[in-house]
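> forwarded from #structure-qc
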């Protein structure tokens, strides 16, 4: 695949110089770390570490494919229900990533952003998340969005509760989608075009619930730590052949 530098960033072109249908926003549900570890007789946390290494590789590949927004479901509002050792291990992994990898991500031209509720996240990690966002805020090749303590239902509820306090909105009138969207975690980010879920599970699990209303889905049995460039290309090829009608009729 070839990349063409334009004023809007990188655009894909194929060998005939025609634009290729590439998702502007790719989202991935990173699933199967635990089973990947179990298969190898390793503790679950080793699976999450392997998952993080895979994610680092994937950021570079996704950028190379000309994708502008890349979001990943790293920790849901429901994941707090896991054993505390696993939760703490994941929080430590997020801190490790920010401390040691943000510079590399920035060098790729990627802006790091977080989506999710801020409550329950340890104070130290919250500060580091803010630092990572500030440090990379001027990068504009790729927005790399980490969904941590994210839940689609929580996002909609949080937006409604913020909107209730907006004095510019007349709550006696019907509110619009635009009114609500203004209060989402990342209102400027376009809806995901393609959502990939690894590990063979066929669920949305409260990810991009509103934004994913018209997303295309791609499921693979591959556990996240085993997901590779060929898997990514297969998903993108599949997406390129999809006919998106948004409830309308075929043109
Ligand atoms: C789901 O697989 C995965 C998670 C709950 C965690 C995903 C986190 C990472 C890959 C690390 C990401 C790191 C950063 C810095 C974003 P699972 O554990 O539920 O797998 P299982 O269904 O096989 O048990």
């Amino acid at each position: 695949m070839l990349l063409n530098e334009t004023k809007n960033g990188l655009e894909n072109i194929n060998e005939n110089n025609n634009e290729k249908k590439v998702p502007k926003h790719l989202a991935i549900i990173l699933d199967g770390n635990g089973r990947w570890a179990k298969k190898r007789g390793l503790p679950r946390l080793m699976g999450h570490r392997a998952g993080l290494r895979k994610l680092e590789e994937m950021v570079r590949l996704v950028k190379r494919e000309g994708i502008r927004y890349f979001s990943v479901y790293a920790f849901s509002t429901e994941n707090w229900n896991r054993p505390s050792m696993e939760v703490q291990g994941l929080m430590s992994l997020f801190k490790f990533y920010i401390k040691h990898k943000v510079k590399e991500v920035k060098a790729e031209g990627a802006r790091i952003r977080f989506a999710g509720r801020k409550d329950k996240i340890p104070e130290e990690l919250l500060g580091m998340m803010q630092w990572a966002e500030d440090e990379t805020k001027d990068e504009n090749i790729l927005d790399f969005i980490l969904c941590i303590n994210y839940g689609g239902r929580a996002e909609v509820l949080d937006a409604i509760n913020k909107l209730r306090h907006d004095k510019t909105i007349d709550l006696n009138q019907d509110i619009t989608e635009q009114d609500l969207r203004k209060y989402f975690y990342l209102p400027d980010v376009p809806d995901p075009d393609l959502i990939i879920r690894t590990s063979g599970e066929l669920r949305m699990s409260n990810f991009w619930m509103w934004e994913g209303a018209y997303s295309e889905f791609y499921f693979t049995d591959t556990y996240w730590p085993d997901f590779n460039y060929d898997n990514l290309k297969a998903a993108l090829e599949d997406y390129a052949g999809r006919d998106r009608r948004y409830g309308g009729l075929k043109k």
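QC bot note: Helices lie at 33-39, 44-64, 84-107, 123-135, 152-163, 177-181, 229-240. Strands lie at 2-6, 9-13, 25-29, 69-76, 110-115, 142-150, 194-197, 216-219.
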